[in-house]
Design goal:
heterodimer, A: 367 residues, abc type-2 transporter like fold, four-stranded mixed beta sheet, 65% helix, B: 299 residues, alpha/beta, Rossmann fold, six-stranded mixed beta sheet, four-stranded antiparallel beta sheet, 11 helices
Amino acid sequence: MRIFYLLKKELIEIFRQKEMLVIMFIAPILQTIILGYVVTTDVHNIPVEVINLSKNKAAYRIANRINRSDLFDVKKITNQPGDHLKTLKQGKAKSIIILRDSYDKKRKPLAYPEIQILMDGIDSNTSVIAAGYFNGVARQYILEDMRKKGFELPLESQTLIRFNPNLKSINYMGPGIVALLLTIISMFLTSITLVREKEQQTMDTLLISRLTPMEIYLGKSLPMALLGLIEMGIGILVVILVFGIPLRGSLLYLFLAAVIFLFAILSYALLISTLCSSQQQALFFSWFSMVTFLLLAGLFTPVENIPKGLHWVADINPLRYLIKIIREIFLKGNGIEYFYKDLLILGAITVTVLSLSLLNFKRLISK
Amino acid sequence: MLKLESLCKSYGSIKAVDNISLSVAPESLTILAGADGAGKSTLLKMILGLVKKDRGEIYLDQEPIGSDFSKITSITGYMPEQFSLYTDLSVEENMNFFSDIQQVPRRRREDLKQRLLEKTGMLPFKKRRAGALSGGMKQKLALSTILLSSPDIIILDEPTTGVDPLSRIEFFNIIEDLKHEGKTIIVSTPYLDEAEKGDDIVFIKNGKIIKQGSIQSLKENFPARLFRILPEGNIFEAIESIRADDEITDNVYMRGRYIKYMQGGTAGFIDRIPAKEVKKVSPTLEDIYLYYERNIHAG
């Protein structure tokens, strides 16, 4: 019951801070929209130069296809060779496509040109994707041309993409961003408000008032959890309405996963608050933890890409599990039978981190 | 009622509380006086279990409490050195919150709240946010909140630091009223004029008690003779010439246009000062504190 009084006090304090309310409720909408547009792995408008040194008709057609594609921003099409390295260094183009005549062993011209792709590899991800696009355009042209000429390929693989058929990265990133919002609000605010109690010595007053560390933890974190869930709701609406990402699974499961995740992340917030003695320290610690969680969560790169030595960090990272569950619910429409193990892991993380935090809390209050 | 025995607390090589033993009589006002960093706050927090003791024992009604500090906290109201209420809540909301968590029965809550706010003069400000109160009012509000649970023991850590003189007087009037109502009160303060109001005054330096007693006994047992000297010439020159004499430097200090000299074992210094007037006076608490602070080397 005393938890309820602490919870009520927290909510009054939060709603008294008008600036904070704006940050809490307007910021997530803006963040979701901005991040949704910015945090994308789709590559468009790659600046490119096409140097067509071939007199071949096929070379001309491939160059034309590249020129017409939305994927490329063709800066120049020429039949004059130039200083390619200089062009890449100047950043005028991120890739240079060179089409030359190709010959067989008897120096007889072949039907299709030789294609050389020069890439600026600074942004390795974009380079790999762009190279894939160029190859795709050329391959598609050759396939169509061969079919026209009555040839059939003896072996051809067909790719069927499920859950995100258009491979739109926003479908993949959007639900992840919702998980990110939940982390920001709950971890930052909880660790800061807990440390503020220490800084203002109100923690001593609470403890003398016979509140237990567990009651203080719950009383302080439940309002943040509630706000976090409201923010998540706003984030989900934005993701569905603004980006048109379909929610194929159950909203109930989504919130169930979010609640379990919240207890895990709030346990981390409590741990941070027991390790810090000022709000600045708590802010720094939370920021550092959030960036680590974010980088090892599989939001930007798959968890499998994480080096083996860092796998244990990913294993105790609650955000990783939530992002996975949210994507499964959103895109695959999965039920709890597909992710109950992830929920159990989240529960285990909560119990472990919360026990550690409470032990540390008790140790610190009677230092 | 409350007895501390050989309490010790160190932070690394610093002894914050060094073997302090103290008995606090029921329904009395005990004042812990000393400079900043003397160890007063640490001692008070040790009584409440907010700081873990390295050694020693605390007794409540002759029973050792061991590590069960709830025996003390359940009957104690504690006001930390810093304002420790919620600045975004109003006076009334703070009172309500502490009534709630201290589980003050609902039927007597309103009456109690009203009486406490009246007693501390805070009734007209009950809708005001705590953050908008003056320093003195904040402390009165903090005192009101700890009184909600009707504690037998009240521990106040430097309650008037940074508070204006009038509010300090008002605050101590309330404390004296509480004592007359039968509360056992322990107050730490760096101000000696406040310390005079204590039934038992405990001077603390470097974590040790350097002297303890009632104002009466401290005055009666003052071990030096105190002289008030009006020098003939410039007081600063007189002080300088006195300070050249190593033997007496520690026992001479300036008060307004007078020099005060605490004469211990050796006599004769008085004759060496060209003075318009030399008068033997009885010591104030400030004189007593300075004497022990300078002559007893606590650590």
